[in-house]
Specification:
alpha/beta, 16 strands, globular
């Protein structure tokens, strides 16, 4: 079992948990994810991308949003509690290269957290990194200080204009694509609809674009096929072929339709758990 070292609330509905996991911290690479279990009673397996880690101190951190019963229970754990189980690191690591032009990373909502290790790796490889972070309002922005500490430039966007530019992330993204020095690569993590429109924006300028997908997942090791997604007309499994994919090849509409498959059950379980109907 993995002891929780720190728990904090990053925004209205995003939580951060740091826990002991020395082997994972030592072996993980940017872009990889974990399967987390809240307890050991055959509980649901939750796929969560690693948000940070420290090999010397032996800890790993995750950021997540409670949307169902299991993530709600996870949000109620505190420092000193134990996770039922953690499997990882899983997935194919992000491809990190040294480019002669900037890399633009786009984070939406709590998708900014899993971008952090990728940004760190890109900087360690010697790249200039520009971050675009978007949220509905300033209170939903996360990891801003952490990103400012490592990025060369941070562009903030909010729907209501309460922080940064009053716009969606594709506005500064298009501006950068049109500049004299366009991005060598764009990496986007966030809500599927945001990633889809980032892909549509960069495709017009033929800018390489990578997205990290978080589809419905069960075992996380390629056996169940629940996380399948169509990429370039071929079936891929997010857990073993990804989570990173060419954004211009993803069948976004099919993926978003599949991700809604269990939304009613998920919402019902969340409200029952929150109201104490079951624990």
């Amino acid at each position: 079992m993995n002891k929780i070292l720190e728990k904090k609330q990053l925004s209205e509905n995003v939580f951060y948990i740091k826990f002991e996991a020395p082997d994972i911290a030592k072996n993980r690479k940017a872009g990889q994810f974990l399967i987390v279990m809240v307890d050991q009673d055959l509980t649901e397996r939750i796929p969560l991308t690693i948000a940070d880690a420290n090999a010397e101190e032996g800890w790993v951190a995750i950021a997540f949003q409670p949307v169902g019963a299991s993530t709600y229970k996870l949000s109620k754990l505190n420092a000193g509690d134990y996770l039922g189980g953690v499997l990882g690191p899983l997935g194919t690591p992000s491809e990190i290269k040294k480019y002669d032009r900037p890399v633009v990373c786009v984070g939406g909502g709590f998708g900014t957290a899993p971008l952090y290790p990728i940004v760190q790796a890109l900087k360690e490889a010697g790249n200039k990194v520009i971050l675009i972070e978007g949220a509905r309002t300033k209170d939903l922005l996360i990891f801003v200080d952490e990103m400012k500490a490592v990025c060369d430039e941070v562009i903030i966007c909010t729907d209501d204009g309460s922080a940064g530019e009053k716009c969606v992330t594709t506005v500064p993204l298009e501006r950068l694509c049109q500049s004299d020095v366009p991005p060598a690569e764009v990496i986007a993590i966030g809500p599927p609809i945001m990633m889809k429109f980032c892909a549509l924006t960069t495709k017009k300028y033929n800018v390489k674009t990578t997205v990290s997908l978080n589809t419905i997942m069960i075992d996380g090791t390629g056996m169940c096929g629940g996380c399948r997604v169509s990429v370039g007309g071929k079936t891929k499994f997010v857990c073993v072929d990804g989570p990173d994919f060419d954004a211009h090849e993803v069948d976004w509409d099919n993926m978003m339709m599949r991700m809604k498959s269990f939304k009613p059950q998920e919402t019902e379980a969340f409200h029952k758990c929150k109201s104490g109907i079951f624990n």
